[in-house]
Design brief:
Shape: globular
CATH topology: Pnp Oxidase, Chain A
Number of strands: 7
Helix content: 10-25%
Low-confidence stretches: none
Strand order of the largest sheet: 2-1-5-6-7-4-3
Order of helices and strands: HEEEEHEEEH
Mean pLDDT: 95
Radius of gyration: 15 Å
Distance between the termini: 20 Å
Structural class: alpha+beta
Strand content: 35-45%
Length: 146
Amino acid sequence: MLPRELIDLMRDLGVFPVVIGTVDDEGNQHMTFITWIYPSDERVLRLAISSGATSARNIRKTGKVAVQLFAPDKALTCYGTAREIAQKIEGVPFDVSVFEMSVERVENSLFPGSTITGIIPFAHTGKVYKMAELDEKVMSALRNRN
């Protein structure tokens, strides 16, 4: 299960940078960086990914997902399965799919004698206002899924 303080931090920050890993039906692995993730509870994560991205295609094929979360004093890897629950988020100018991941196992990824001192530093570049507006639309869709 995800720790309560991590769930609260992810919800408070809005966008939360993570690394996700997926695998296709031939066993080819893929990792990418995303920021559209929302913990609906201690066992479910919702992810928003560009519909045509390799990660989205892999999830549709195999459902296998790993998510690495970094926060103060924590480096956790969540393993589980995901399914697409929406093919498109209304109001977003390109196709973004919503996936819901059932967290089956959470492992501490820190090595002995180490700690994490914060979340992954992240900032939008380019049209910051437009990106903030896009983030709000996507995160609203993740928070409000039934």
